[in-house]
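Milestone 3.1: sequence recovery, worked example.
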């Protein structure tokens, strides 16, 4: 696996934000984190980027390297990990769209804004 997250716990003071999150991302996969406000999307990305401290017992590895041993600047400069801030914030309202229409629109938005790749309609 390229990225392995196991038992990720993150707290803001006494408030627990993430409670044992687990996921793996293989090389070549493109992953979107989608959820309601306050669900932990940004917290997850900030923890992986080391902008937030993970609680004890959390495990994060990238290409076999322990992310918990890296400072935030080294996560970017040495490992090449960064994240793109919530694409949906720049999108139009999705409320009027069906699931298939939303998915197509969202994928196009990600490809265009994150990867600078234009799809022809």
């Amino acid at each position: 696996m390229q990225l392995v997250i196991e038992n990720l716990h993150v707290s803001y003071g006494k408030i627990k934000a993430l409670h044992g999150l687990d996921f793996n991302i293989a090389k070549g996969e493109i992953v979107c984190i989608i959820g309601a406000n306050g669900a932990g999307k940004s917290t997850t990305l900030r923890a992986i980027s080391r902008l937030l401290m993970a609680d004890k017992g959390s495990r994060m590895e990238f290409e076999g390297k322990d992310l918990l041993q890296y400072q935030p600047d080294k996560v970017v400069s040495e490992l090449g990990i960064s994240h793109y801030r919530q694409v949906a914030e720049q999108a139009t309202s999705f409320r009027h769209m069906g699931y298939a229409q939303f998915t197509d629109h969202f994928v196009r938005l990600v490809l265009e804004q994150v990867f600078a790749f234009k799809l022809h309609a």
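Residues 88 and 106 are 8 Å apart (CA to CA). The mean pLDDT is 81.
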